Amino acid sequence: MKALGQVTLLCVLTSVAGLATWKFKGAPDRTVPCEISQLKEGEICLSTVIAEWQNNVLWVDSRLRSDWEKDGLPGSLLITTANGENFDQLLEQAVPSLVEGKNVVVYCSDVGCGTSLEIAKRIREFGLAPEVKALHGGWKALQQAGLIPPKS
Amino acid sequence: MKTFIALLTLLPLFAQAQLTFDALQKELHAPPDANTISCDFAFENRSGKDVEITRYEPTCSCMSVQINNNGKLKYAPGEKGIIRANFDMQSYSGKVDKLVNVWLKGDPEDKPSLNLLVIVNIPVLVEISPKTLEWSSSESMLPKTIKIKMNHSKPIKVTSAAISNPIFTVELKTINEGKEYDLVVTPVGKSDNKVGIGTISIETDCDIAKQRRQMAFAIVRNTPVSQAVTSGAQLGPAPVAPAGSVK
Q1: A56 interfacial to chain B (CB closer than 8 Å)
Q2: Chain B nearest C-alpha distance from A133 (Å)
Q3: A-chain residues within 8 Å CB-CB of B130?
Q4: Is the ipTM of this complex over 0.85?
Q5: CB A125 to CB B131 under 8 A?
Q6: Are A45 and A95 part of one and the same domain?
Q7: Alpha-carbon distance A126 to A103, whole Å?
Q8: Is A118 close to B61, i.e. CB distance below 8 A?
Q9: Which of A69, B79, B163, B232 is most exposed, with the fewest beta carbons within 10 Å of its own?
Q10: A64: which chain B residues are within 8 Å (Cβ-Cβ)?
Q11: How many domains does chain B have?
Q12: What is the pLDDT of residues A1-14, one digit of tens each?
């Protein structure tokens, strides 16, 4: 019983410490972590895009068309091979925007998806834009940074 | 207190068991005419406890994943299994990386324990270089050339080459029939817009359908490259840009 009391006391104390930390330090940071040293070749952190490229960015969504239509970043273009989409056709439609001189950032769903890296690589092969990168963390990083408007 | 500390020492017993794989990354070389390719990742439960696979997902709709033994998910110590990744290559050529994420019991939803990487090398039979030709208004509108090289044991002939915009002309030259061609592109007119864009379509008789048609672009910037326009699109809500059309 004495041990149980000690365990209970320790649990209470750690809970109080946790709540106090939340109150004074604020809610935990839920943004997608991005360590520059851990990036794959061709990837970029959202923080770098915002800090260094600012408004000079053309966003490309490489998810499913239905996802892009539902909650794609406003102003983004769809270029993808998901669900049998024709990459050549979508690229051709996007060329007038790609040649405007902006840096291109491609995103897919989240950290684990690989489509954005592949689409970025294929766009880069055409040499249409100064820089073409895949966003580490994908759409989820954009959402957690507050860049995806909430659904109405 | 001593009892509590003793309880803490038992915590490692609750640590997650893992599966041991023969490799977490595999590289394959696909024949040029293959439409699908499979890659097996063999694993074994070398831990002292049961391991349960709760979820497995490829990162591309072009892949499907199977687990052997009719999809058996729970593996006792010493048991072995295979995760097979099937890749539909119909839209791909060159070097392609694809991931399969595997969650074990206890994994957070956004952090799978395992990332299995399949690297597939699909031969590029019709090589186009460069894929974009560009001129600025400050330079002479001299012809520029796209090199077309065939990397196949059989000859591949270019059957047609055309460009979508009449401000350009194209001329196909045979260097070595079935092996090498030059496509000479010349701007001959002026676009009314800041940028004149032509899509170049190159058709071949390649017996592999996905490599039969190739695409390239020709661009004339009617403002000098140093004064290229960068419009100020904002991050966040903005009107969706209409799809451009090549005239």
Answers
A1: yes
A2: 16
A3: 127
A4: no
A5: yes
A6: yes
A7: 14
A8: no
A9: B232
A10: 61
A11: 2
A12: 788 888 898 888 88
